[in-house]
C-alpha cells in the first residue's frame, strides 16, 4: 500500500524414516553438561520451547546416529531460528537457514559463496525427542542462500510434531508443527492471521502474543519484510529500532533483510509454535508494484531484476514447497490447503498477475475497464474451480488487499484506493459472482495491507435489492504505522456495510467450528517499546449457513 533459481542438488534429502523410538531415546541419561548446544541463542522461542530445546539438545548431541560435519565454524549457525509451513494431512515443510553472522553485508549470513553445510534434522512426536519418527541429512549452499527446506510426507494426519536441526555440535531451537486433519475430519481450528511488520515502527509483540494463544496454523498475508532503508517510512511514534542497510535492491540486500527480520525473538517464537502459510504483498519486493511494473518507473530491466531477487529471497526464507521455487516466469504462490471438512484455505496472489494501478486514488474511468484484472485469468479460473469443488464448511480466501468498497472521503464525494480491489471494479465483480455461483457454504475473505482492522459484509446491490455475498475480516498491522490509537469507529454513513474499523496494531484470531466461525480482533497497546499488552477489541461471528457478520 501507499503509506534464477536452482535448488535440486543442494536440497537432495537423504531421509531415513525410523517410525519408532531409536537409540536416541536410549541416551537420555547422558550428562547434559557434556553435550548439547555450545550456544543458547538470546532469541530463543517461548519458555516452553527453550526448556524443550535444552533437553532435546542433550539427547541429540549424545546420539551416536548423528555425525554431522560443521562447515560453519564455531559460531552458532541457527541464529535465524526454525520454521514450518504448508501442512497437508500427511506432511509439512521444515525450514531453517544457516547464518552465524545474520546481517553480514553480502547477504550470506557469515558464510561464503563456496561454503557447503551438512545439516541434520529430526522429527519426533514429543519435544523431548523420545520418539523420533523421521531423521535425515541435507547439504545446503549459497545457491539457496544456505537455506534448508525439508518436505515431509507420509506422516499421520492431525498430529503435532517437534523438529530440530543440527550442524556439527550445534543444535537448533526446537519447533512445533503439525499436519492438517484427514479429509473426513471435523476437527475445529484456531488460526492466527497477521500482516505488515515494518521493522523500524516497532517490536513484534503481536507475534509473541499470538504464539501464546497456541494457534494450529498462522496465515501471513504479506508485508513480512519492508524494503525501506533507515527512515524511509517515517511515522509519528518514531523509530523503535534502526533498520540495517539501505533500501534493498539486490539478492544480497533481500537475503540480508530477511535475515535481520528472522533474528527477532518474537518472530522466531511464532514460527516455532505452528506451521505458517505465507503469501506476499508489495513490500517483500517494493511498494505498490504490480506484475512487472515498478510503482514509479514502470516496466524496466532494473525492476525485473529486483523483483527476481525479491522472489528468490522470499522463497529461500519461507517454509514453502518446491512448487514455489522461482523460475523465469516468476514465483507460484497461490495455492489451496485443506483442514479436514472444516475449511479450505484459498491463498491468493494479488500482486504478480494484476493490471497496473490507474493511480493512487480514484475512481477514474479505467477503474471500471473490464479488461483489467487483479488475479490474472489463470488464477481467477483456478479460484472459481476451487470454490465450486471445495465442499468445506468454511471457504477462506487468504489474500492481500481490501475487497470491501471503502469510500475514504467523508460526506459528499467518493474516493477509493486504486491499489485495492476498488481499483479493479470489474475484477471484483467477477470475484463476487464466482463466490456467489460456486455454492460455497460459508465464504470468508481475509485481508491485510491497510494497517487497520475492518469487519465488513460484501454486498451486491442491484435495483431489486441487496445481497450479502460473503464477509471480509481485515487484520491490522503487527507494527506498521507505529503505536496504536483508537479511532472509536461508530459506523460511517458512506460505508454502511462496514461493521468495525479500528487503527490499533495487533492481529486477528479465527476460531473455526462446525456451528460458527469467530473472528477476534486482538490489539496491542503499543509497539514503540517492548512488552505491549494485548486485549480484545472486538469479536464477530459467522453462523453456519447464514450470510453476514454478527456481533459475538
Ligand atoms: Fe503493509
What would the keywords be for this entry?
signal; binds fe (ii) ion; 7 helices; Immunoglobulin-like; Alkaline phosphatase; 25 strands; PhoD-like_MPP; globular; 552 residues; Purple Acid Phosphatase, chain A, domain 2; alpha+beta; TAT_signal
Written account of the structure:
It is a single chain. By secondary structure, the chain is of the alpha+beta class. The protein folds into 2 domains: about 75-180, Purple acid phosphatase-like, N-terminal (Immunoglobulin-like); about 180-550, Purple Acid Phosphatase, chain A, domain 2. Helix content is about 15%, strand content about 25%. The protein contains 7 helices and 25 strands. It has helices spanning about 45-60, 205-210, 250-260, 265-270, 300-315, 375-390, 425-440; strands spanning about 15, 80-90, 90-95, 115-125, 130-140, 145-150, 160-165, 170, 175-180, 190-195, 215-220, 275-280, 335-340, 345, 360, 395-400, 415, 445, 455-460, 465-475, 500, 505-510, 515-525, 535-545, 550. The strands form 5 sheets. A 7-stranded mixed sheet has the order 12-11-10-22-23-24-25, covered by helices on one side. Strands 13-14-16-18-20-19-21 form a 7-stranded mixed sheet, with helices on one face. Strands 1, 4, 5, 7, 8 and 9 form a 6-stranded antiparallel sheet that branches. Strand 7 (about 160-165) and strand 8 form a beta hairpin. The longest helix is centred in the middle third of the chain and has 17 residues, at about 300-315. The protein starts with 12 loop residues before the first strand and ends with a strand. Mean pLDDT is about 90; it is low at about 5-70. Fe (ii) ion binds next to loops.
Amino acid at each position: 500500500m501507499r503509506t534464477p533459481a536452482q535448488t535440486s542438488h543442494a536440497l537432495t534429502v537423504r531421509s531415513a524414516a525410523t517410525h519408532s523410538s531409536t537409540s536416541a531415546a536410549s541416551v537420555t541419561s547422558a550428562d547434559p553438561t557434556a553435550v548439547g548446544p555450545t550456544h543458547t541463542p538470546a532469541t530463543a522461542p517461548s519458555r516452553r520451547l527453550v526448556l524443550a530445546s535444552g533437553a532435546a539438545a542433550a539427547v541429540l548431541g549424545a546420539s551416536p546416529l548423528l555425525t554431522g560435519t560443521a562447515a560453519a565454524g564455531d559460531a552458532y549457525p541457527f541464529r535465524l531460528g526454525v520454521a514450518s509451513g504448508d501442512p497437508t494431512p500427511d506432511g509439512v515443510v521444515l525450514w531453517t537457514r544457516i547464518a552465524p553472522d545474520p546481517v553480514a553485508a553480502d547477504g550470506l549470513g557469515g558464510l561464503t559463496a563456496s561454503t557447503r553445510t551438512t545439516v541434520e534434522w529430526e522429527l519426533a512426536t514429543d519435544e523431548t525427542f523420545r520418539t523420533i519418527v523421521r531423521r535425515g541429512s541435507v547439504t545446503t549452499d549459497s545457491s539457496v542462500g544456505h537455506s534448508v527446506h525439508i518436505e515431509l510426507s507420509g506422516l499421520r494426519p492431525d498430529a503435532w510434531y517437534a523438529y530440530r536441526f543440527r550442524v556439527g555440535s550445534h543444535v537448533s531451537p526446537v519447533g512445533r508443527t503439525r499436519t492438517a486433519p484427514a479429509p473426513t475430519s471435523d476437527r475445529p481450528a484456531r488460526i492466527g492471521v497477521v500482516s505488515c511488520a515494518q521493522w523500524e515502527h516497532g517490536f513484534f509483540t503481536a507475534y509473541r502474543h499470538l504464539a501464546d494463544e497456541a494457534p494450529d496454523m498462522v496465515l501471513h498475508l504479506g508485508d513480512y519484510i519492508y524494503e525501506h532503508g533507515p527512515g524511509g517510512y517515517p511515522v509519528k511514534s518514531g523509530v523503535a529500532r534502526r533498520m540495517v542497510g539501505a533500501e534493498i535492491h539486490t539478492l544480497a540486500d533481500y537475503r540480508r533483510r530477511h535475515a535481520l527480520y528472522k533474528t527477532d525473538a518474537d518472530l522466531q517464537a511464532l514460527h516455532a509454535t505452528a506451521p505458517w502459510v505465507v503469501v506476499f504483498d508489495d513490500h517483500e519486493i517494493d511498494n505498490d508494484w504490480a506484475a512487472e511494473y515498478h510503482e514509479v518507473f514502470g516496466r524496466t530491466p532494473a525492476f525485473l531484476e529486483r523483483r527476481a531477487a525479491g522472489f528468490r529471497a522470499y522463497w529461500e526464507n519461507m517454509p514453502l514447497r518446491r512448487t514455489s521455487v522461482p523460475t523465469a516466469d516468476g514465483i507460484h504462490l497461490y495455492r489451496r490447503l485443506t483442514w479436514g471438512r472444516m475449511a479450505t484455505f484459498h491463498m491468493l496472489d494479488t500482486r504478480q498477475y494484476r493490471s497496473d494501478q490507474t493511480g493512487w486514488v480514484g475512481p477514474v474511468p479505467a477503474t471500471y475497464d473490464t479488461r483489467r484484472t487483479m488475479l490474472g485469468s489463470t488464477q481467477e479460473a483456478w479460484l472459481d474451480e476451487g470454490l465450486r469443488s471445495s465442499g468445506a464448511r468454511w471457504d477462506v480466501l487468504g489474500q492481500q488487499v481490501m475487497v470491501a468498497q471503502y469510500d475514504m472521503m467523508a460526506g459528499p464525494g467518493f474516493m477509493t484506493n486504486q491499489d485495492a480491489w476498488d481499483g479493479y471494479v470489474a475484477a471484483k465483480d467477477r470475484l463476487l459472482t464466482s463466490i456467489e455461483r460456486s455454492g460455497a457454504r460459508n465464504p470468508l475473505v481475509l485481508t491485510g495491507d491497510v494497517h487497520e482492522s475492518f469487519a465488513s459484509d460484501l454486498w451486491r446491490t442491484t435495483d431489486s435489492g441487496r445481497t450479502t455475498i460473503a464477509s471480509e475480516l481485515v487484520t491490522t498491522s503487527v507494527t506498521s504505522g507505529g503505536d496504536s490509537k483508537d479511532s472509536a469507529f461508530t459506523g460511517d454513513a458512506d460505508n454502511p456495510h462496514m461493521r468495525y474499523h479500528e487503527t490499533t496494531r495487533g492481529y486477528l484470531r479465527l476460531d473455526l467450528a462446525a456451528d460458527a466461525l469467530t473472528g477476534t480482533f486482538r490489539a496491542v497497546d503499543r509497539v514503540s517499546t517492548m512488552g505491549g499488552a494485548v486485549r480484545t477489541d472486538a469479536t464477530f461471528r459467522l453462523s453456519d449457513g447464514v450470510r453476514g457478520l454478527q456481533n459475538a
